[in-house]
Amino acid sequence: MNLFVDIDGTICNSTAHETPGEPFYYESEPIKQNIDVINTLYDTGHYRITYYTARATGDEHITIMQFQKWGVKYHDLIHGKPVYDLFIDDRAITASQFFNRYYVSKGESNDEA
Description:
It is a single chain. The strands form 2 sheets. A 3-stranded parallel β-sheet has the order 1-4-5, covered by helices on one side. The protein has a two-stranded antiparallel ribbon with strand order 2-3. The chain is globular. The two termini are 22 Å apart. Helix 2 (60-70) links the parallel strand 4 (48-53) and strand 5. The chain has helices spanning 32-44, 60-70, 95-105, and strands spanning 2-6, 12-13, 29-30, 48-53, 76-79. It is built from 3 helices and 5 strands. Helix content is 31%, strand content 17%. The protein is α/β, with parallel strands linked by helices. The longest helix has 13 residues, at 32-44. It has a single domain (2-105), classed as Rossmann fold.
């Protein structure tokens, strides 16, 4: 099964401002609980995990550095996701829906999703 996962607002919280000369995602904070869920799916061997982001392609090194630091497991990383206000897709669910379903099925709560 192919699983596409957005980065900002899904596995990390990013600030809404930019530091002069640096993209705002330098200050991103991981949502460890959500990273652990996706890593668990990766570990089953039944999922191909692709992270995709609207972050600029030229900043891929930042994302890879963060993934290494945060222990993110993945198969592919795609930069240049289209910027949109509304995404309509027959197979899409929000991060909150996905993680809340996961935690409810495990009898846990997810305060960060």
